[in-house]
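Form 12-C: Joint structure prediction
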Amino acid sequence: MTGYILSRVARAALTLLITVSLVFLFIRFSGDPAAALVPPDAPEEVIEQYRKAMGLDQPLWKQYTGYIGGLLRGDFGYSVHTGRPVEDLFLERLPYTLRLGLTALGISLIFGISLGVTAAIRRGTLVDRIVMGISVFAFAMPNFLFGLVLILTGALVFKVFLGGADGWVLMPALTLGLAAMGSFARFARSSLLETINAPYMRAAEARGVPFARRILRHAAPNAAIPLVTLIGLSLGALIAGSVVTEQVFAWPGVGQLLVRSVATRDIAVVQFLVLVVAATMILANLIVDLLYLVIDPRIRAR
Amino acid sequence: MTIDESTGRTSGPVLSVDGLTVALPLSGDRAEAVTDVTFQISAGDILCLVGESGSGKTVVGQAILGMLPRKLPVTSGLIQFQGVDLPPQRDSAYRKIRSAEIATIFQDATASLDPVQRIGTQLGEILEVHGVPRAERSERILDALSAVALEYPERVSRAYPHQLSGGQAQRAVIAAALLLSPKILIADEPTTALDVTTQADILAVILRLKAERGLAVLFITHDFGVVEEIADRVAVMTEGRIVEQGAAAQVLERPQDAYTRKLIAASHPGSRQTVPKDAKPILEADNVSLNYHVGGIFNRRKIAAVRGVSLNVASGRTVAIVGESGSGKSSLARCLLRLEEFDGGSIRFMGEDVSGLERTALRSFRKSVQVVLQDPYSALDPRQTVRSAIAEGPVIHGMPRAEANRKAEALLDLTGLSPQAADRYPREFSGGQLQRICIARALALEPKLLIADEPVSALDVSIQAQILELFAEMQRTLGFAMLFITHDLRVAQTISDDVLVMKQGAVVERGPTAQVLHFPSHPYTQELVASAPGGASLAPVSAI
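Section 2 - Result
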């Protein structure tokens, strides 16, 4: 078990290092950031000055060690446009993204799982078909379209603007959570159906265990095992997944910051944000791996 | 119904089933799953309900437990427990009866336990839902686990199902069934998934419980070997009807019905005709060893799966490898197929060292050595027609598609299936038919060596006999060498010329089949022979 934990943590750390290195390389090889910052007609000396200021005239390995060293010291660099530390920019937007992302996750979990469970228990009936229809629709609906429909409906029918920093979090959260709700519902249904028909469920019935208790005590914990993976992935996508929705609703979150920084080639910000996104994804996976230890004794044994 | 003063038990049958008829849905292969089934079981009696899969024997068990699915309605008949009618199917009143009065155990014990709960928790739940006070529970759990001869009841109680062996899990499940001292136990193929020694242990536990507690047992099985061991009375079922019923000795020794005779004959397969020894072995394995490395980076351990095994197989001959699960039989087969890089020794196929083969040589080796696996259901791609499954191999090895398709049909014919089967999908066939398809697929490449890994253990006895006969016939026609892996001594006796007995990765005894099985010299082989169901039939010469 200690071996399992250590190997998962080591793997997460390695993944993070590889990601950091790749981000560093990609940004340097996708065009000269200094040239992109200055106006197109700027003289060569000005570009050179910028290059020096940003450390881009150094050999690559020096830039790399400097970069990694900076990361380790907690020095993530400065935004070229605002001159402020990137983590400050990030932290002031994080609460918005978290509020949006967690509300969306909550909505998708609560509705997704209850829809899936209802469908599984009523398998093959009209209820099942309707629920599955809804979840396919939810999953297939592009969120920018659904978001626009919500905003339009709000504006034209109810005369309110549903976007913006002071807007109601529920609308963008609904937009963001819709697709995840669809996949949670389908996953919960198939996973529960598999466990409902497992031999141990029939055995529990033969032992006189009542239906509700069979579902809650035996089917649900076993069905939760594959679901945890899916929830973990959604958790990992918490920060990066909301880019489109934040744009549509003019929600001042991290996603919006990322889009702006890419457009203006603010490389320190992009680098940092990609790093944060990767780190959340890796962390979420690590949490899932460790959570398996709690819910599945078969893994604990290894 | 009267009450016997001395035992406090009611005399007369504990359970009586009278004229039970259960309808099948319209799409079924017959109108009724169970037709006019009548039998009684008294306290301290074991009734074996024998039949092949699809005979309706499991439906009878489900009906008694009130667990028939909606699509199988009871159309007539009466099931009485201690002289009183049982509630209608799926009625909530059944909840108090199940486990408390009528308990059941299923074929796959490990699967009938919740994988994420400790054994003790699951047993405790039974007591809880039947209203036993918390204070008494843990003591009763430990008592029940001890009663089924589990060595460390406390440890088993704390264990999760995957930590138990098949035999331990089946004991734990029996303990669960007996917690509330039910009057009757319905055991549905409880030993089919177990190896012979474990099976003998479990049968002994059931026999002891019957003697000690006066438990009535309805034992559902397809295996007459098991019936011989434990039955007081026998009822033989086919196509939903009981065709013969009576005392065990009477049915076994003087079967009246033709179907009963056929089933009994199938469980005592005769020995085969010996094929003359070929001078040159086609496969020579010398001192092969294989270690598995388990655990992560920090706690790697080495497990010796195969220890220094040598064997030869010649064309037209069959060598059986016999052993319990975990004895290294399948690991050895994987080495011989070069699916596993073995750690020591050498394997030569037609004189060539197998471990050195690459590219074209390896491809032609793969073509010459084919394999038939245990579970025909998972060995075939469900989305591939039978024709394409059989023709795939020859096409990969360069045969034109049309010719390969013709060959596939010819092979279906040869293996006893109609050529119309070619266009159908695996789900449309029974287990026996699927295994025929797998054999046809293996033979499509005209192998020089066929490795069969437990190819009949998932099948009913009478089907087993047919498939074994098919193997033997194909070998006579096509002359390939065969390596036959099995845990079942009766199968080894039927199919093989020579036998190797494996234990913990090493060969403990080898020799001509008749000699090894009739005059076993190693204590382990003796134990295997003795614990084989119907072990007596393996005694000298009787079958030869």
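Section 3 - Comments
The longest helix of chain A spans residues 86-121. The CA atoms of residues 211 and 276 of chain A lie 45 Å apart.
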